[in-house]
Amino acid sequence: MRNLDTQNIIEMSEQRIDNWLYRIRLTKTRSISQRIIKEGNVRINKCKIYKPSIKIKPGDIITINLYNKTLVVVVNGFTKRRLDYKSAQEHYKIL
User: Fold this and answer.
1) How far, in Å, CA of 42 to CA of 48, rounded?
2) Which residue, 11, 4, 5, is CA-closest to 80?
3) Maximum Cα interatomic distance, the chain, rounded to a whole number of Å
4) Distances (CA, A) of 1 to 5, 10, 80, 94
5) Considering the chain, what is the average pLDDT of its residues?
6) Which of 74, 78, 46 is nearest to 59 (CA)?
7) Which tens digit of pLDDT belongs to each residue from 35-76?
8) pLDDT (tens digit per residue) in 78-87
9) CA angle at residue 43 from 54 to 83, to 5 degrees?
10) How many domains does the chain fold into?
11) Can you spell out the DSSP letters for 29-44?
12) Is 95 helix (H, G, I), strand (E, B) or coil?
């Protein structure tokens, strides 16, 4: 039982960037999240990324460039499932 608790804490202290973008409703599907990351439209702490599997942590600054618009958010938390819009807003802060 203790190993499961430890795994759960580790799992919730970081999360894949593609899953996070999808679960907090910044993208409509996970495949869209993966595509925009592979195209180089996402940065983590000012570093451009191309791998959807990169892990993010609370406090990371995510920059998304889409359709001539830039969205900058700070990661506040993670979730295990896709949330409704109102609940999802608690997991990030727009800068």
Assistant:
1) 6
2) 11
3) 49
4) 7, 15, 19, 38
5) 89
6) 74
7) 999 999 999 999 999 999 999 999 999 999 988 899 999 999
8) 999 999 999 9
9) 65
10) 1
11) SHHHHHHHHHTT-EEE
12) coil
Q: Which domain holds residue 74?
A: 2-94
Structural contact between residues 56 and 64, judged by C-beta atoms closer than 8 angstroms: no
Would you say 56 and 42 are in contact if contact means Cβ atoms under 8 Å apart?
no
Q: Which residue has the tokens 């999808």?
A: 22
CATH number for the domain harbouring residue 13: 3.10.290.10
For the chain, state the CA radius of gyration.
13
Place of tokens 């990169």: 54
For the CA atoms of 52, 55, 61, 67, the dihedral, rounded to the nearest 10 degrees, stands at 10
> Angle at the Cα of 56 (from 26 to 13), degrees rounded to 5?
110
C-alpha torsion sign, points 73, 77, 81, 85? negative
Total-model pTM: 0.86
Six-digit token string for 24: 């907090």
